[in-house]
Amino acid sequence: MKAGEIRVWDPFVRVLHWSLVLLCAAAWITAEKAEAAHEALGLAVVGIVTMRLLWGWIGTRHARFASFVRPPAAAIHYLAGLVRGRSQRYVGHNPAGALSILALLASLTLVAATGWGSAHGPMAGAHWLEEVHEGTASLFGALVALHLAGVVVSSLASGENLVRAMITGKKRGS
Q1: How far is it, in rounded angstroms, from Cα 121 to Cα 162?
Q2: What residues form DSSP beta bridges with 7?
Q3: Which of these, 99, 87, 76, lies nearest to 154 by C-alpha position?
Q4: pTM for the predicted model, two decimal places
Q5: Domain ranges, residue 14
Q6: 124, 138, 153, 154: most buried by Cβ count inside 10 Å?
Q7: Ranges of the chain whose pLDDT falls below 50
Q8: CB 62 within 8 A of CB 42
């Protein structure tokens, strides 16, 4: 590790993060084309989300929800600081990033539940449930785009490559 760097993201968080990226991309690609693969990918996503939720309670310091989840007002304050060019730096997730993570996990849970329900549940084959599944998948896609925009803006504002940090696990010390 370089001088002045600290380990923030543990290997488990990083593997889960990049696994979700790959699995969700593959699920999106296989939608409408390869039903069995799409369902298998969806089940894998459920497993990853479940592990991340569990790790959010028992994991390392920066992985635990208690260390980064803040009230919405904190996210608004952080975003206002970004607009003014005076955003506060966070070693772990910033408050807006924390809300993004919660929204992404919640939307993935809805995508998986509606996908399973439309294929296997008591409402299997219900057109309206398939539409809800597609709608929640679209919502997830929009949240991913917002998340990526936030990563770019926060990286520029802090002068820190947040994608690199999610690969190496290291950031500048406080």
Answers
A1: 40
A2: 170
A3: 87
A4: 0.92
A5: 5-172
A6: 154
A7: none
A8: no
